[in-house]
User: Fold these one by one.
Assistant:
Number 1:
Amino acid sequence: MAEPILQVRDLRTHFFADEGLVRAVDGASFDLHAGQTLGIVGESGCGKSVTARSILRIVERPGRVVGGEILLRRRNGQLTDVARLPSDGAEMRSIRGGEIGLVFQEPMSSLSAFHTIGNQLIEAIRLHSDLGKKAARARAIELLAMVGIPRPSQRVDSYSFELSGGLRQRVMIALALSAEPRVLIADEPTTALDVTTQAQILALIRRLQQERDLAVILITHDMGVIAEMADDVVVMYLGKEVEKGSVDAIFHAPRHPYTRSLLRSIPSVLAAPRSRLATISGSIPHPLSRPAGCPFHPRCAEKIGAICETTAPAETVLPDGHAAACHLLTRAPATVPA
Amino acid sequence: MTEPVLEVRSLRKHFPIRRGVLGRVAGHVKAVDDVSFSINSGETLSLVGESGCGKTTTSRCILRAVTPTAGEIRFRTQDGKSVDVATLKPQQLRPLRRQMQMIFQDPFSSLNPRMTISEIIGEPLLVNGVTDSRERNRRVAELLELVQLPAAYLNRYPHAFSGGQRQRIGIARALALHPSLIVADEPVSALDVSVQAQIVNLMLDLQDRLGLAYLFVAHDLAVVKHVSHRVAVMYVGRIVEIAPTEALFTHPRHPYTEALLSAVPVPDPRHRAKQIVLEGDVADPSNPPSGCHFHPRCRYATERCRTEVPTLREMAPGHAVRCLRADELALQGVTA
């Protein structure tokens, strides 16, 4: 397999809040390849968004990347550790948007209401290229057409509030791809959208990925979207990477009790009407009172005993890049269920 | 067959669009346009559809948070009378409000942060004349047990609770006055998956125990499958299909329902289904397309669909469809 475009190694991003230390991301490691989609999934507070923001170095104070490496293979083939760069330096600014594009959840609040979408696109295009105003405008119209916006030469002069949610998200994607990045990070790109619009946007991301051999990091809480889109999956819980593997392994041979119970608790259109859902007891702990040992132990139905309460489990590597951090895997012989 | 708790007939809610300095009425947004359905006690009817389809406005009309433009909302009161909520005066509505309650979407903004849990749940009791504090506390304790929260939480404030716990508090408050109808507008959509499952199960259990009727307003079809006896699909102010849950999911009869179902991502990578990706956006309810509102996005549309307005026709017992071609189309539902 080709060299990964992005390698994240033991990433740690902590928030030094007045109330205490929040380990928002506490050891995340994964590889991202061109043309592939890596899904990062988890519930609120698991650190999936902070992971994305760490890669782009836009973590807000009092948060800081405190450890690990974020190795980006640059256009010129050189390897840069993004974690070491000053977050507001020239190099980071050219990577952000230039080599790694970002699409947020809320297209309403991430687009300016005071500038036309065309002007916002032109600004982004000129920031990362030496195109003149006219050429940049032509490029903006081209980008709008590429993301499937009807009548792009007229829409270029409209304001974001004149567009529907689906069109706004298309504009966001056009903005993110304006400098032709090779990595696209999409943070809950369809969460605020209706289901038919979501299907349109996911189809668009898939098409653009194929056309441009884009590497995509898709962050979502929706296991359905992950199943639909991802090649590989990272499951996070309270800042920890609990399991990672191919999408098929995660859904059909999950090894971590959290992944297993999360999958069981998802409502499905295939379920029998009025059927009860499997539940995970309790709720996600407050980030400031994270349990010792394995972060999932207070809610885990398969807890072994004292070791889960006191010792954080190390990651056990299984065949085919599948890995999980659970004491069960070191106790029992690693037999993969069929 | 029991009599329905709620019967909505030809409900309409049109909002005027005002233009210019004189506020001249330039048109109407037909948010709800001829909607009819009924709900029995112990039954859940879900209203589904995309944003702007009129599902929330319908539920707000039923609670009389807005006054309908036309139509009847017949509610069977607990003393057996049938009243038309649509035309009651505010003072006549008050005694009815305890019998129809609401569960909100956002458990973070719907609880007063300055009140303890016991005050929040006890408030509807106090307002409705339960002035004896011992009796009130007894009922509040009973309600906490009903929603499976420890009695020790009574004197805490909402900020100390997680989203799921707050939603339980909201449910306890809604149940305080023994309602017969609960209107739940997206009650689990703000919750994490693992917590959502707990609240869905709780709502099912409470319904079985108390014989509640639920009007469940939601956009998540998977959650709808788990809670509903029947489902009504709305598009631009109208019900386009209404059917028992299993029939609607496995044998949809309206092309919009088919497209909606196919767009739901199934949590199984071996099931990457061929989706029907609808073109364009939901029609503008202030200027809906002629004929069938769905025709510009419908892959089965014919010339007739552009001009003729379809009526809601019963195709099978309890299964009605608003589509001119419902007899001839063989549509795809969800199957494992």
Number 2:
Amino acid sequence: MTATAIIDCNANLGNWPFRRMSYNTPEALLERLGRVGIERAWVTLLDAVMLKNVGAANPWLAELVAGREALTPVGSVNPTWPAWERDVAECAELGFAGVRVNPNYHGWELAGGELRALLSAAGELGLFVEIAVRMTDERHHHPLVMVPPTSLGGLAPIAGDHPEVPIIVANAKQGDLGPLGPGAQLPANLYFEMSHFESVGGVQTAAESLGVGRILFGTHAPYYYPESSHLKVFQECAFPEEDLAAITHGNAERLLAGLR
Amino acid sequence: MSAPAIIDCHVHLHQNWGDRFSCAEVLLRHADRTGVELMCLSMGVTREVYHGSGSVEDMRRHNDEVAEVLARWPECFVGFCYLNPRFLPQSVDEIERRIAGGPFRGIKLLWDLYCDQPNLDPIATRAGELGVPIQQHTWIKATGAYRYESEPRQLATLARRHPETTFLAAHTGGNWELGIRQIADSPNIFADICGGDPEVGYAEMAVRMLGAQRVAYGSDAPGRSFASQLAKALGADLSDADRQTILSGTMRQVLDL
């Protein structure tokens, strides 16, 4: 497999309020990812998580990635705010591939009505929906801004009701997946980004449990060292070539090709 | 034996990966894929140990299991002897039996007592006499600590009382931006950077504040991935010399290899 084939489905631009970031501009991120052979990335804007008016992040992100085909922008939406549907529509107009939500930071649960409404809107506009379970390790949060991870409880049946919308679960550890139930019974439109999968050979174990076809390569760079995911997939695990191709780019390409 | 290119200062046996030999084989297989050549192995992760309710028999059994692994793969593992300082006389017996008598070459402490308590003093004194390091679990948790779970600042207190003894601050407190600072002025504490997420800046800050010769790569496998933890050293913006020091040089010095 050529290095250029790798798609990082979970990279970030911008700033996170609790740490001085590096490699967080388009140029610097691409240079940094390029050191491990990644030349394409789906990017969100870190700043969006803590903005009150989350939708303001989307034209900002569009401006940042303009003219950079290697970066696929993923917008941000808070479906508890009035007129959030306009933000989803704006993401589609800006040519974004999908929208990310941070339910834990924005005070809502997947089992409520927000996700169903968002999936309906995203489905009509041909966008995928990405659910970030966390942004950083809860044990080390700022003591005045402690945010538990998003529970995935209730997600599976809701996803099953919207088979036309790819749903990506990002930044989840294996332990977060318990409420979803057995991997083999999950709806086909559920995908899992692997940057937070841990334990020795943990990505391979997860692929066996969830199905290789659901696993998306992601780094969570530049918050994480991109070498982490790269070493997990290419060295620590022993994937056959076809599985490696699926995880590192094939699944992502299939997901995008399925969008309207 | 030629100098290993990568020494992992922190791996465990773990009941989720089968018995002692099965788990060791899992460690060896994945270590081989990632270039780790020597691993410092201690105690199994079991329910009673996790809950701080381990007995003297549990302590001895954990060390027996590590000893059996050491006997089978002596070239791949260095044994760290788990001590429960709530049982001080029996812990001292374990030091004499396992370390003074060989083949263990380090001490592992978890969260059975805060590490700045007086019960730790005879253990630290004997470790200094024998020239073996003490690896103390440390974590600073915004979400609440385990009972008797120590922070690096408490290890710094113990280290000040025992300047002749070498300590490894396991996980560097997890919250590494704070943990590195808590041990910065304790020259006999080394940062074991295992176990937390592979966050950019970790190794760079550790080297900046401690010097590479006080920073050691560790994984906390099998619960953690070798890969994610190696990324902290391999992905950091460091000189090649500092990177190699983290990957093996520091532990060669600590273990006098």
